[in-house]
Amino acid sequence: MNTIFQGTGVALITPFTPDNHIDFDALNRLVEHCINGNVEYLVALGTTGECATLSYEEQDAVRDAVIEMTQSRIPVVLGIGGNETRDIVDIMKRTDFSRIQGVLSVTPYYNKPTQAGLVAHYKALAEFCKAPMILYNVPGRTGVNMTAETTLKLAREVKQVVAVKEASGNLSQIMEIIRHRPETLAVLSGDDALALPVIALGGEGVISVAANAFPEEVSTMVRNMLGGHYEDARTIHYALLEFINALFVEGNPCGIKAAAHILGIAGNLVRLPLVPVSEGTYQKMESLIKELKPH
């Protein structure tokens, strides 16, 4: 399978200043940190980027900044999703697709559409999406699971659909997608802890939260798995696993923003209704990071 979405993509956080504006200096440090860590691509304005709390003007500013900071060194994928199809179509219409290499679009949340509704939704978006599209299934956040059957139907019938970010946590469902997919569909883990087993089952990589903090380690683990160096991959996987689990104890991106603060990349700042992790979780994260990066 020939896909630019093989390997490690980073679900970038959106750093904030203490007065609740976007911290572009910290964003630049993060982009450089990830590129220097040899990840394959960046994903801006996804769930981890707190896109739901950003105004359209802020979303445009983050998009433009990430594209400018990346300077075409690696691909940039843009999150374009929501729970109102017409609104997403309007965003698609005003997007300059020549500057990005892909679109990540989450299943509509809150509305709880049927599977037929999901198919109709993505087909409506595809009319205006002029970049490769990654479907994003994350039922724990959206309240609806996109079944394997629906994912496969979209992969076969919508030419823009070239990948799925599967964050259902359901390995049986993921195996069903991998088993029956067309050659054009890449399957990406949406869960850091499941990246290794998903690739072992035939997946192409991960869109990672943990790689904001440890891009070199995550991307090396993924490349080892894809290259058949399973023992080396398992060693990194288990070294990172406790840190990965700690990231989500108090929700995403609260955990990864604490980690970014500990590493000196960005402030420990999220937008309401999210709040920073508790002191106990922060100290646990600090201890785990010191074990992973003793110097």
Note down, in words, how this protein is organized.
By secondary structure, this protein is an alpha/beta fold. It has one domain: Aldolase class I (TIM Barrel). 45% of the residues lie in helices and 13% in strands. The chain contains 12 helices and 8 strands. It has an 8-stranded parallel beta barrel, surrounded by 5 helices. α3 links the parallel β3 and β4. α6 packs parallel to α7, α9 crosses α10 and α10 runs antiparallel to α12. The longest helix has 18 residues.
Short structural description:
45% of the residues lie in helices and 13% in strands. It has 295 residues and is an alpha/beta fold.
Number of domains: 1
CATH class: Alpha Beta
Number of strands: 8
Question: How many distinct helices?
Answer: 12
What series of H and E elements makes up the topology?
EHEHEHEHEHHEHEHEHHHH
Rg calc: 18 Å
Return the CATH architecture.
Alpha-Beta Barrel
The name CATH uses for the topology is TIM Barrel
Distance between the termini: 39 Å
Alpha-beta classification:
alpha/beta
Order of strands, widest sheet:
1-2-3-4-5-6-7-8
- Helicity range of the residues? 40-55%
Q: Would you identify the regions where 5 or more consecutive residues have pLDDT less than 50?
A: none
Q: What best-fitting shape do the alpha-carbon axes yield?
A: globular
Q: Roughly what fraction of the amino acids lie in strands?
A: 5-15%
Major β-sheet annotation? 8 strands, parallel, barrel
Task: Report the CATH superfamily.
Answer: Aldolase class I
Query: What is the averaged pLDDT score?
Result: 97
